[in-house]
Amino acid sequence: EVQKLNQQLEEKNGEIQQMINQPSYEKEREILRLQKTLAEKEKAQATSDVLCRSLTDETHQLQRKLASTAEMCQHLAKCLEEKQRKEKGNTDDQLPTERSNQLLDNETSLQALICNLQEENRMLKQKVAHV
Question: I want to staple 124 with a disulfide (CB 3.0 to 4.6 A). Which of 23, 38, 40, 66 is the partner?
Answer without folding.
Answer: 66
